[in-house]
Specification:
Chain A: Part of the binding-protein-dependent transport system for phosphate; probably responsible for the translocation of the substrate across the membrane. Chain A: Keywords: Cell membrane, Membrane, Phosphate transport, Transmembrane, Transmembrane helix, Transport. Chain A: This is Phosphate transport system permease protein. The complex is a heterodimer of chains A (309) and B (289). Chain A is mainly α and 309 residues long. Chain A has a two-stranded antiparallel ribbon with strand order 1-2. Chain A has 13 helices and two strands; from the N terminus they run ααββααααααααααα. With 289 residues, chain B is α/β, with parallel strands linked by helices. Chain B is globular and about 55 Å long.
Chain lengths: 309, 289
């Protein structure tokens, strides 16, 4: 009696190996690209810091890369980014969270089926459209309604639009987290005579807190990195936060890090001087900030997940 | 029959054996005659109660009178509607979009499906314990205090938490760790925590939906002992798929068979020793289901 043939099939083995390396190559490609970008950022930033001191860059309160007297203090740009982030957070976090609670706890399956995709359309609108919308409609509207002296380019309308843009991120990720809260917890709460509102606020939201927090951080990272809206609508005036008049920051033209980079990158700066290289220094700063925020988001999510599930 | 309010004094006792004297509460009554004696006053009464999930009928014209301060077991094969019946009592079926309830379910004479009944108010009179332990991801103390907080009973919370844990036979095991998470307890302890949570706001009725089915035999026997004690103060309705459990702990037993039909309801001894219906006997003896 002959034994069954279980021997290797050369072609099958070769094909398996080929696919394995093809998949690995694709996976490596994106990692390599990321590494290359970070490396370029770093190298050009090092070039920049050879000409401008790191301390001056990080502590300087004046940003003027082309006009005399030249100054490369990044703080006004960070101020601008901070203003936009705070403004958009004030719009997106409450609206996004309440939307998520509505979708997860109050909406019927039918309503949810229409509302969720409709909300996600918001995230699909090209940001350049938001930018011009802020400039052409929101600013004149605010000017007409509020008795304030609003500049044509201002942080207020830009941050409102950035806020609207990131609402779907907050609501969608938060809603996922709330839907994942086990139904048995809701039942326990209803069984004790809780109203829908109490069930939502005392059981569902606390149990989904890690996901909600992650959604906040991710949305804020997105707001920090948002370029087009602020480049169009927020203006190009680097300005320090005036602690005596924080609200005044919103009414005037500002300049966040991203739009400063746009200005350098698209302007007529020639050569490899510090003005041009500052692009990479600001870019690196931006990268570090959003990277740290994503790291915090990951940490929070993994740390509190076990506690609440 | 319409009763505008859910007050015992307006209730017409449907069982004519014992009528509680107005002014004396049940506690004094039973204390006089010893714990063993129970009143046979009907607290919960279903009349032609039917439930549909969409097109499917889950409960079919159920008539039943559940006595106060006794343990009533609801048994039957899977899908017979026993859990559906339990969830009719505190209107938890309202949370299921497709559920539709017909007929009446009276709590102390008041039909809980009347338009003027707020299920939230109803559920505050009725505690519920679920199939698997479902403590909140909060501290032991906050778990037990949750119902008190929700219901606005903010006086002597600590004292009530202690009493509830004591009644649920859990206090000795957790007294030193009231601030640690309820999820750190074992399954059996978690279920007793859920019982403590259900009784802390001092409801009239406790509904239990297979409360021991996820537990090991030792934890189960602790829960069973506890249920018998609870009937001294509360009306307990327990759904179980375990017939020995029903026989051990209940005073009355309701047998539901397929199609959501209540086939027989009587004293537990009678059901297990000499049931009226052949189908019930077949089920009890294991020939069916």
């Amino acid at each position: 009696m002959s034994q069954p043939d279980f021997s290797h099939d050369g072609i099958r083995t070769a094909r398996g190996t080929a696919f394995r390396y093809l998949f690995m190559l694709c996976a490596l490609l994106s990692i390599l690209t990321t590494v290359a970008i970070i490396l370029t950022l770093l190298l050009d930033a090092v070039d920049f810091f050879a000409q401008v001191s790191l301390v001056d860059f990080l502590t300087g309160t004046r940003w003027s890369p082309t006009n005399e007297p030249i100054a490369f203090g990044v703080l006004p740009l960070i101020s601008g980014t901070l203003v936009i982030t705070i403004g958009s957070a004030m719009v997106a976090l409450p609206i996004g969270l309440l939307t998520a609670i509505y979708l997860s706890e109050y909406a019927s399956d039918r309503q949810r089926a229409y509302l969720k995709p409709a909300l996600e359309v918001l995230a699909g609108v090209p940001t350049v459209v938001y930018g011009y919308f802020a400039l052409v409609y929101v600013t004149p509207a605010i000017d007409a309604i509020l008795p304030v002296d609003l500049s044509t380019f201002n942080a207020l309308s830009a941050s409102i639009m950035v806020g609207i843009m990131i609402i779907p991120m907050v609501s969608s990720i938060s809603e996922d987290a709330m839907s994942a809260v086990p139904d048995s917890l809701r039942q326990a709460s209803y069984g004790l005579g809780a109203t829908k509102f109490t069930v939502s606020t005392s059981v569902v939201v606390p149990a989904a807190l890690s996901g909600i927090f992650s959604s906040f951080i991710l949305a804020l990272s997105r707001a920090i990195g948002e370029t087009m809206i602020v480049a169009i609508a927020a203006g190009q005036t680097p300005r320090m936060i005036d602690l005596t008049d924080p609200a005044g920051m919103f009414l005037d033209s500002i300049q966040p890090m991203t739009s400063a980079m746009v200005q350098i990158g698209t302007g007529d700066i020639v050569g490899q001087g510090p003005a041009y290289k500052s692009l990479f220094a600001v870019g690196l700063t931006l990268f570090v900030i959003t990277f740290v925020m994503n790291l915090i988001s990951e940490l929070v999510a993994s740390r509190y997940r076990e506690v609440y599930r | 029959m319409t009763n505008e309010q859910m007050t015992p004094s307006e209730t017409e006792p449907t069982d004519d054996q014992t009528t509680p004297t107005p002014g004396t509460d049940g506690l004094a009554d039973t204390a006089d005659s010893g714990w063993e004696t129970t009143t046979d006053r009907t607290l919960l009464e279903a009349r032609d109660l039917s439930v549909y999930y969409g097109e499917e009928q889950a409960l079919s014209d159920v008539d039943i009178e559940i006595p106060e301060k006794q343990v009533t077991a609801v048994i039957g094969p899977s899908g017979c509607g026993k859990s559906t019946f339990l969830r009719c009592i505190n209107r938890m079926n309202d949370l299921v979009d497709s559920a539709r309830v017909e007929g009446e379910l009276r709590f102390d004479g008041k039909n809980v499906y009347d338009d003027d009944v707020d299920p939230v108010a109803l559920r505050r009179k009725i505690g519920m314990v679920f199939q698997s332990p479902n403590p909140f991801p909060k501290s032991i103390r906050d778990n037990v205090a949750y119902g008190l907080k929700v219901q606005g009973k903010k006086d002597n919370v600590d004292e009530k938490v202690h009493t509830a844990l004591e009644r649920a036979a859990l206090l000795d095991e957790v007294e030193d760790q009231l601030d640690s998470s309820g999820l750190d307890l074992s399954g059996g302890q978690q279920q007793r925590l859920c019982i403590a949570r259900a009784i802390a706001p001092d409801p009239d009725v406790i509904l239990m939906d297979e409360p021991a089915s996820a537990l090991d035999p030792i934890a189960t026997s602790k829960i069973e002992d506890l249920i018998e004690d609870l009937a001294e103060e509360y009306t307990v309705v327990i759904v179980t798929h375990n017939m020995q459990q029903a026989a051990r702990i209940s005073d009355k037993t309701a047998v539901f068979l397929t199609g959501g039909e209540l086939v027989e309801f009587d004293d537990t001894d009678k059901i297990f020793e000499n049931p009226e219906h052949d189908r019930v006997e077949d089920y009890i003896t294991g020939k069916f289901g």
